[in-house]
């Protein structure tokens, strides 16, 4: 497993960059009127960039855990401190910003669930953090990571984990709908963590097929082929979910488009998707995710009634991406490092000790 300690997968950051572009697209389209149906569907499919985040997160987390295990640096307490340092400070700032800017209803229960990232387990899946369900699902996966890393030790066992996750999601969804019939076909059963675990499991499987030393694919082109296969699998899984949850009827579209794109970039057009721009967006994708809601709202207020039609959507989307990337870059360079140092210092004071050096961007948690 020596290859794991030095492997960098350029397509991982590129996938995160493309995923955040899709997420900004769907939220931009929700703020523009008089857009033709096909264009709305295309932009709306960008919401499933979140599943791309989850897939890559499963791969990146397992890569980090196994690398630290090989070097003798694996500590589960330090693992959770790193995850908290990466996610919590920016999430709490985003929560505070939402309370100040949008003035949502704040109750002790709602605030508490938001701060401990449990909102995705409730019908109020976002809580007080815009997009909060995504981080709630991430933390559910983190809680399972020690168990999953023990079970998934090869491509074969990872495939069993992936199949188990799909079956478990279906069974739990059916059970929840049986207990509370009003949940059948509801958005909640799509947003809650069990429905999203198969995408982390797909990422774990692709880890064993992609990372040199774990599988047998040493070249970046072949890695991109496996990336396309993973995204295509995500598309199929999302399409299957439409049987139980009507809201994801076109869920397969965005991962499928990325799958084809990654395949073409591997076979014919190197750099088409895996390039400096997409990798740069991937590195700041978490900050972009937290702040793009506020950026789009601000731009929409400035634009007023001029946001309508295809031209308005395209212009608004382009400006939204540029502005969100600018804010995300500043946040990534200032707030994220400060927050990580703060949480690590707190962890040291309670006896966790200073965690080992943070993993490179390709091995970080998502989004």
For this entry, give a set of tags.
0% strand, mainly alpha, disordered N terminus, globular
Descriptive account of the structure:
This protein has 367 residues and is an all-alpha fold. It has one domain (2-363). Helix content is 70%, strand content 0%. It has 15 helices and no strands. The chain has helices spanning 10-29, 37-44, 49-70, 76-102, 108-115, 132-151, 155-179, 188-191, 193-210, 220-241, 253-267, 276-283, 285-303, 309-333, 335-349. The longest helix has 27 residues, at 76-102. The protein is globular. The chain starts with 9 loop residues before the first helix and ends in an 18-residue tail after the last helix. The relative contact order is 0.18. The model is unreliable at 1-7, 215-219 and 242-249 (pLDDT under 50).
Provide a concise account of the structure shown:
With 367 residues, the protein is mostly helical. It has 15 helices and no strands. It is globular, with a radius of gyration of 20 Å.
**Could you estimate the helical fraction of the residues in percent?**
55-70%
| Mean pLDDT across every amino acid position | 81
Report the principal-axis shape: globular
Number of domains: 1
Strand/helix succession: HHHHHHHHHHHHHHH
Write down the oligomeric state. single chain
Rounded Rg: 20 Å
Question: Total helix count?
Answer: 15
**Gap between N and C termini:** 26 Å
The residue ranges in which pLDDT falls below 50 over 5 or more consecutive positions are 1-7, 215-219, 242-249
How can the largest sheet be summarized? Answer: none
Give the amount of beta strand, in percent.
Answer: under 5%
Structural class computed from helices and strand pairing: mainly alpha
Number of strands: 0
């Amino acid at each position: 497993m020596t290859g794991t300690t030095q492997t960098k997968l350029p397509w991982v950051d590129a996938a995160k960059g493309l995923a955040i572009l899709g997420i900004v697209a769907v939220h931009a389209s929700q703020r523009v009127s008089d857009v033709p149906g096909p264009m709305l569907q295309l932009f709306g499919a960008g919401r499933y960039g979140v599943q791309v985040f989850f897939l890559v997160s499963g791969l990146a987390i397992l890569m980090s855990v196994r690398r630290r295990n090989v070097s003798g640096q694996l500590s589960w307490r330090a693992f959770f401190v790193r995850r908290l340092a990466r996610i919590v400070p920016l999430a709490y700032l985003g929560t505070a910003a939402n309370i100040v800017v949008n003035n949502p209803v704040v109750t002790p229960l709602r605030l508490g669930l938001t701060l401990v990232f449990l909102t995705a387990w409730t019908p109020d899946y976002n809580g007080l953090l815009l997009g909060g369900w995504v981080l709630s699902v991430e933390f559910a996966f983190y809680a399972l990571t020690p168990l999953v890393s023990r079970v998934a030790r090869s491509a074969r066992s990872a495939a069993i984990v992936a199949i188990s996750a799909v079956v478990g999601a279906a069974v739990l969804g059916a059970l929840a709908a049986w207990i509370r019939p009003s949940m059948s076909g509801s958005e909640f059963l799509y947003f809650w963590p069990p429905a999203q675990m198969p995408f982390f499991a797909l990422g774990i499987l692709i880890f064993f097929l992609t990372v040199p030393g774990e599988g047998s694919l040493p070249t970046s082109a072949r890695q991109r082929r496996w990336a396309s296969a993973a995204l295509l699998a995500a598309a199929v899984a999302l399409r299957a979910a439409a049987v139980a949850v009507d809201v994801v009827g076109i869920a397969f579209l965005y991962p499928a488009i990325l799958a084809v794109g990654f395949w073409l970039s591997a076979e014919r057009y190197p750099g088409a998707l895996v390039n400096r721009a997409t990798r740069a967006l991937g590195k700041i994708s978490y900050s972009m995710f937290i702040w793009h809601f506020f950026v789009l709202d601000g731009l929409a207020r400035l634009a007023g009634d001029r946001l309508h039609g295809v031209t308005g959507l395209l212009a608004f989307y382009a400006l939204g991406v540029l502005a969100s990337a600018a804010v995300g870059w500043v946040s990534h360079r200032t707030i994220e490092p400060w927050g990580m140092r703060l949480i690590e210092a707190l962890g040291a004071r309670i006896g966790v000790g200073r965690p080992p050096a943070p993993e490179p961007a390709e091995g970080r948690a998502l989004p």
